[in-house]
């Protein structure tokens, strides 16, 4: 019988940022799945929440960002392990709740099914705010604080937009970018217009998006509306 030990897995993790389960088995001299999992439990590891959990990496708490997330290329990991647990934590810890779009932009994966499942089991709550669904803590007091903060953000954003001046020239420049790239978000449009004289700011682009409901058009890839 091979003289296997968790040190074999630790050595593999030190040699590669991410590995597959098959590579871990090979490092243990073609161990069975049961034996591999038994040794793996003795090593601090994390499993990707995308790619169906195919990838493993050494768990290093210093790598996690303020959201409790880290990545190697397009392979994503969370301090919670499972994506469902990550979604619930992010919603509960958020200052002003989170929308589905905000979560997807942060996690880089689809979360709709997980959100609906969490709501169905009362792990988080859902409220409609300004025409969109906001996901909130399941504790009533925390939920009320999150809702108040979200309303304050909306009022603040409106005040900022009201103070931003957008003339026809800026509108045309933004729409021209979206004709070529219908799926672009405001940040992408600002990047595409870098170097424009005078500069076109994020606030100006957001105001154009808001005025013409361009977020909805982008979802439908509807460049022909222009």
Helical region count? 11
The ordered string of helix (H) and strand (E) elements is: HEHHEEEEHHHEEHHHHH
The CATH class assignment of the largest domain is Mainly Alpha
Helix content: 40-55%
Q: Based on Cα principal axes, name the global outline.
A: globular
Oligomer: single chain
Q: Quote the average pLDDT.
A: 89
Distance between the first and last residues' Cα: 70 Å
Number of domains: 3
Structural description of this entry:
The protein has three domains: about 70 residues; about 80 residues, Arc Repressor Mutant, subunit A, CATH 1.10.10; about 60 residues, no CATH class. The radius of gyration is 23 Å and the shape is globular. The protein has about 230 residues and is an alpha+beta fold. Helix 9 packs across helix 10. The strands form three sheets. The protein has a three-stranded antiparallel beta sheet. A two-stranded antiparallel sheet has the order 4-5. Strands 6-7 form a two-stranded antiparallel sheet. About 50% of the residues lie in helices and about 15% in strands.
């Amino acid at each position: 019988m091979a003289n296997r030990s968790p040190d074999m897995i630790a050595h593999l993790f030190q040699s590669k940022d991410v590995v597959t389960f098959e590579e871990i088995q090979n490092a243990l001299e073609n161990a069975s799945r049961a034996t591999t999992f038994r040794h793996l439990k003795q090593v601090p590891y994390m499993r990707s929440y995308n790619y169906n959990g195919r990838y493993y990496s050494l768990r290093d708490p210093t790598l996690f960002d303020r959201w409790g997330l880290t990545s190697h290329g397009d392979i994503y990991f969370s301090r919670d392990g499972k994506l469902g647990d990550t979604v619930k934590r992010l919603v509960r810890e958020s200052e002003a709740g989170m929308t589905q779009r905000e979560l997807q932009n942060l996690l880089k994966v689809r979360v709709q099914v997980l959100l609906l499942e969490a709501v169905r089991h009362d792990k988080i709550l859902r409220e409609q705010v300004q025409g969109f669904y906001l996901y909130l803590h399941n504790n009533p007091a925390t939920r009320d604080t999150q809702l108040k903060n979200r309303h304050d953000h909306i009022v603040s954003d409106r005040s900022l937009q009201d103070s931003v001046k957008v003339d026809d020239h800026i509108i045309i420049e933004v729409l021209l970018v979206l004709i070529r790239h219908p799926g672009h978000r405001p940040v992408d449009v600002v990047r595409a217009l870098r170097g424009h004289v005078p500069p076109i700011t994020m606030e100006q682009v957001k105001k154009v998006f808001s005025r013409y409901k361009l977020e909805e058009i982008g979802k439908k890839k509807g460049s022909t509306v222009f």
